[in-house]
Structures are given as structure tokens and as C-alpha cells.
Write a structure and sequence with these properties.
- The structure holds 2 protein chains of 2 kinds.
- Chain A has helices at about 1-15, 15-25, 155, 170-175, 225-230, and strands at about 30, 35-50, 65-80, 85-95, 105-115, 125-130, 160, 185, 195-205, 205-215, 235-245, 250-260, 280-290, 295-305, 310-325, 330-340, 355-365, 370-380, 390-400.
- By secondary structure, chain A is mainly beta.
- A 16-stranded antiparallel beta barrel of chain A has the order 2-3-4-5-6-9-10-11-12-13-14-15-16-17-18-19.
- In chain A, a hairpin with a 2-residue loop joins strand 11 and strand 12.
- The two termini of chain A are about 20 Å apart.
- In chain A, about 40% of the residues are buried.
- The longest helix of chain B is centred in the first third of the chain and has 19 residues, at about 1-20.
- In chain B, strand 11 and strand 12 form a beta hairpin.
- Chain B has one domain: Immunoglobulin-like.
- By secondary structure, chain B is mostly beta strands.
- The chains are: A mainly beta, B mainly beta.
Chain lengths: ~400, ~210
Amino acid sequence: MKIILVCLCLFTVSASAQEFLNALDDNLTLATPNQTFRIDLSGLLDLELYAPETPAMGLLDTDDGLFFNPRLTLFLDLQATEHLHAHAQMRVDRGFDPGFAQDGRTSLDEYFIEWKPLEQSWINFRLGKFATSFGAWTERRLSWENPFITSPMAYNDMLPISDDAAVPLAGFAGRRHLPDNRRTWLPIIWGPSYASGASIFGQIGVFDYAFEIKNAALASAPRSWDIVENGWDSTTYTGRLGWRPSPEWNLGSSFSHGPYMMAESQSSLPAGSSFRDFNQTTFGIDGAWSHDQWQIWSELMTSRFEVPNIGAVRVVSGFLEAKRKLNAQWWLATRWNQSWFGDLPGTSTGWDNDGWRADFSLGYRFSRHLQAKLQYCIAERSGQDEEGDHLFAAQITVKF
Amino acid sequence: MKALLFTTLAVLLGTLPALADGIVQGRVMLDTARPPAVDAGYKPKTIKPIQAEESGRAIVWLEKSGITYPQTRVGEVVKIQQSGYQFRPSVIAVQKGASAEFPNKDDEFHNVFSYSKIRRFDLGRFRKDESSPRITFDKPGLVKIYCEIHQHMRCRVLVLETPWFAVTDTKGQFKISGIPPGEYEIKALLPSEKRIESKVTVTQGKTTPVELSR
């Protein structure tokens, strides 16, 4: 299977394959002559190879020295007049995050309808399952736009907080040293956070805004996102206000507030409390600058988790990411990530270990349909931790 | 007075070969390009509305084997604007050695690039009225140009050895003049990027009508 995929990948470099992909791209769009109705099918085929120091860091769930992760993502866009748009994103992979479903799975990551009542973009409505409006990283979450293979630390570094059961105080402080629990841990924001709900968003001059109500908190795991499977147990409010003072700058501030414990945790919670009593509250600022061959992004956020049996704990995390195109096809990117943890309530002991991670990436675009990336990450935490400190990754993406 | 006479004579002599050369005029049956990636209108990520793409046009040119083409158009510098989130013009023909500039007329960044083998470039992001790098096309072939930020934007530059070419209007009509008499191959690149070709005989001082269709 791997050999077939590698051969397929080598084939896509050839000129005839490029012509085929061009033709495929063209033929997957159908539109009425007046453009009133349109159907567009597109996709990404990612072949990823991870070589982590085990146990792997972040949202990579493997104990293997080499982990192969193929992923097919299909996008369906339906447009009916200028005012109605529907979108669906389906994936076949080995887990929403690599390794979480080793034997493969199929999922609908996004499905939503959008209504734009006015000619201008001042106000739009969206209903369904879609990426969060918090921060600015989600705009480049797909492999074709992302200069890296992995997401920033704030979006994939697992914190010793769980949403499926309460943890006794004694077990909480030392959790970082029990990596077997990692599968139940949460990051500050779980990737793009494709939770379900409704959104109102738009753009007025140099300002843009988005406000959404969803069924899962930013930290909630993918298993909580789908309203069809999980219903609506609790409500999270999220929003972002953006400002583009000039073409170079894109600035924004975001907030999110809502319960992160799952309904299944109820039996383990302290008597008299509800799983809806434990909120995640997050504030963030983001800034991006670009000009010529440079693109720079940064985010800084602080998140407060109300933890059963523990009280409120706080984490601050941020990153600074830069991409420099070397020519039409090569680029280099680097990202510095850092997280700081507050103290356990009533103590001077941090509830987790401060840490940093540096990411380096080299990318090459063969064409509008094929690109390759190499990435290396090095991470360090204060004190003792069980996670590996190094990760090598390679990714080939075919876009059609 | 003598000077005036000599000047007039020189101008007349200079224009005589052009007057004596033939003209090819006609029409190409245009087909349709693939649908635009987005339709016109306001989009959530654009400050102003996206304008409609240009209607389809073809490029028509004449070739003749075994001759050295006159280098009459190698010094041309065409301006390909980014305006209303579209390339204007979006179908261009140039002679090998000619150049293009890409002025940005929108209030937002564009990032013009091409991965075409014969001319790869990436201009980076630059704002309205910032000077654009000049790109010289020194190999013949089709250069497909896009914007990295607005992926619906597309532009085609056909680089030709011959100086005898024209871009049709939206009805497919064209006129190529200044062609020395003789037998030529006449070719067209359609909006769909399919090519058609035929043969044509150019007669001195006359207009040869041509209809090209698939």
C-alpha cells in the first residue's frame, strides 16, 4: 500500500500527471452559464511520515519510531445565487489527529450552510459544523496553506486536563508524569475545533467580526463536536473582532467561554455540581504582517479552566511564526511556541510544566497541484516530562 | 525644402514594405473556458466586490518554418493589472524576449506567480501602486499566471517566436497585418486552451479572410 502511494506520488510530478490534475480540477466544477448555480468538488491527498522521539509530542498518538499517515480530504461546495452557499468537508485518515484511529476512519469534519442576505458582506449567517473563529491559525489549517505539517503548540500541546472524568487533587498535580493518560488530555484549542452551532460574521470596511454559539468548548475533543452524535449538552460562546489597517497588517482579538466537561463526566463530579459548571474561558490576540516574500503570524492567548476538585487553573500560550519564500517554489518557515502555567489554587506549585517548542520547515511546490514539506521540532519543558523532545516529519500533498 | 522632400521620401520608403505586406483578418469560433472559480460579487474576504472575469478570447498567430522571424516586438512591455480581483487583460500574446509588469490597482495585496516550466516566478506581496518587478519571457510557450491570495484569478501569456499574432475580441474577430507574402500555418489558442490550426496564403497588399473552428 505504501509503495503504491509513493509511486502515485512520484507519478504526480510528471508533466502528464500535471495536465491530468489540471483537467480533473477543471472538470470537477460545474456551473450554469449565468453562474447562478455551481457545484465544485475539490480535494487534498496528504501522505505524511512522522519520526518522533517516543512517546510523540503533541497531537500525535503513536509509540512507533516511524508512523505513516495518509489522509484524503474532499471538499464539496454548492452555490445557489450570490446569497446561498453550502460546504462539506470529508476526510478518510488514521484519526482526526494522526494515530487516534490507527485502522482508519471516515468523518465529516465540516458541513454548513451560509446565507448572505445583502449584496455587501456586512452580515452573513452560518449554520452547521465548522472551524472556530477564535484566533487566526484556522485560516491556514489545511495542508496546502499551512507552512508546517503540525499546528502551533496552543492548538496541539496536550495539557493534563480531561473532559471525560474528574481527577482527584492528588492525581492532578503529578499528571504530566503519567503519559498513559494522554488520550484523555486536552489542548487549549483542539486544532480547528470543528464544533457544531451557528455563526454571524461579516466585514465592514477595514473591520471584520465573527460571533458563534457552539456545542463544545475550544479545548473539547473531536468526539464532542458533532451535534448529530452528541447532541447539545452545553453552550460555548466565541467571537473575534479583526482590524486590517493596511494590506500589510491583520490584527484581531478573540474570546471564548463555555463548559468543557462532557456529560459522561457527571458521575465523577463533586456532589451538587453539574458538568456545565466547569468552564473554559479564553482570551487571545493575534497579529499578522506580510510584505514581498515575508509572512509573519503571531498569537497570544490565556485560558482559564475550572477543574473539578481543583479550582481554576490558568495557562498562557503563544507563538511567533515566519515564512520566507526563497523563490517561486522553495520556502523556509520557523515558529517559536511557548507556554506558561499558573499555580494550583492555594499553592505556589505550577499545575503543569512551562515549556517551549521550536518548529522548522522547508517546503517546495512542484506545481499548483503538488507540494512537499519537511519539518523538525524540538521541545523542552521545565522539570521532568515523559514526552519525546524531537520530531521529524515529511508531507507530500496532492491538490485537485 | 530639400530636407523636407528627403524626409517625406524616407518616410514613404519606410512604410512601403508594410503597405506591401499582407493582412490576415477573420474570426475564430470561440469555445468556453472552464467556469470561473468564483462568481462576481462581494466575498467575506475581500474589501470590495470581485469583478467578473473577462469574456473568453483566443490568440491567433502565424508561423512559417525555415525563416528567421523579425524581432519587431521583443521590446514590448505589457502591463497586466490586478484590478477588481482579476487580471486585466487576462489573455496576452507576446513575442519571445518581451516583458510584462503587474501593477496592483486593488486596495489589497496580490501575490502573482507562475509555476509554468518556461517561466517560473513569484512576485511576492505588494500593495497598490508599488512598483512591480518586470518579468521577461525568454522561452516560447504558454505561461499560466495566478494569484496566491485570490485563487480564482488566472491569466494566460502565450510567448511566441513569431511577431505576427493578435488577441481576438470577444466575438473571435482578429486582424494581423504586416505579414510578408507566402504560405503560413495559422494557429489559435482557444479560451479552453485547446489549439486549432490551418493553412493560409498571404498575398502582397491584400487582406486574406480566415475562419477558424474546431
